Amino acid sequence: xxxxxxxxxxxxxxxxxxxxxxxxxxxxxxxxxxxxxxxxxxxxxxxxxxxxxxxxxxxxxxxxxxxxxxxxxxxxxxxxxxxxxxxxxxxxxxxxxxxxxxxxxxxxxxxxxxxxxxxxxxxxxxxxxxxxxxxxxxxxxxxxxxxxxxxxxxxxxxxxxxxxxxxxxxxxxxxxxxxxxxxxxxxxxxxxxxxxxxxxxxxxxxxxxxxxxxxxxxxxxxxxx
Amino acid sequence: xxxxxxxxxxxxxxxxxxxxxxxxxxxxxxxxxxxxxxxxxxxxxxxxxxxxxxxxxxxxxxxxxxxxxxxxxxxxxxxxxxxxxxxxxxxxxxxxxxxxxxxxxxxxxxxxxxxxxxxxxxxxxxxxxxxxxxxxxxxxxxxxxxxxxxxxxxxxxxxxxxxxxxxxxxxxxxxxxxxxxxxxxxxxxxxxxxxxxxxxxxxxxxxxxxxxxxxxxxxxxxxxxxxxxxxxxxxxxxxxxxxxxxxxxxxxxxxxxxxxxxxxxxx
Lengths: 225, 267
What we know:
The complex is a heterodimer. By secondary structure, chain A is α/β, with parallel strands linked by helices.
């Protein structure tokens, strides 16, 4: 399992360059100032936006290639996401959120039971996201991501708006599950503590003085880019 | 001395003329409606014909707004193409355009000597003007923009991250639309439909210009009121009272009782 990407994307007067290669079992922690392109980097991998120029490979398969005109839709990339605020569907119950996209068939299965127990969702299953605290929402979001059979896990500031207690709980859950996750984890955060806590690789998005160009570079020698 | 934050003295007095002008006429209709003969007026042949025609045309208009207005609203909210602002402006123009002018516009587009109407007549022998279809078209022209505006706002306020999340968790574009986007805009959809239906039901200017005032074919309730008033019949008041009643119901619905209930039931 790996991600290899060399990708340039323009947003108005702003250009983001991403050059990264990370392999099996990596946890890449990405930091950088607001508006530097951290979230855009996740969107590129997930397939929510396309590279202006460049190529993205997941497990050696091109999912985005500007020169070949190739773009694999997000639903075919086997990517799981935990977007800012949790990205929970407000009209669905916690149970329906956790199994979204994989149907009710999943419910009652061993994986589902394990995740519900580990993320302590038992008493929340019939509630809507609007009735949950920030920490509970983030647990649901993480549970959904880990239950999904994915090759890449993308997390966008999963602990930013949490109080100290729920932050510790969420970190504890991430720590345990990152260790057993078979694919690549990309974690965007503002918190340097999380880099030391989780990272096998760290990278900072560097923005030039004129604020027109940002660059993210990570090279894992085990992966041929 | 009153113990609260003072407000501008005399402001309420200035509001009084507005209240009189807006509220009094409706009170007058309720006051003068011949309640004893109300049912007889409403169920006279002429009134019944107008009521059924109005129901039929306004519901067809609302359905057409749903089917064709939603995609238009989605395009205006989400796609970036040249001339989008111009298209939006043109699409909501009927909201500020005098309906009579709308009728004239329809006449010169779809009338027998109109831009498209001429061709329709020459090639297929189809004449749209002064038919029930024309009444629907007039209502659509005037009412559909309300639906488009409401839905465009709803689509725009929707968090795009939610659709993105749905896609990464395996939903295709149509599945994301049906399982995430539509349920989330459902309250706006309901409100937009009610608003559009009410506007279609009350349409007068464009209808009388483009569809005419033929009983049983294009004479909807507002046109029947107008005709009855001219001939001095009682049914003008009764039909007006009916419309007041419908409008009150619509207002209550829009105030969130029904629409809010829909939202709570997770529709």
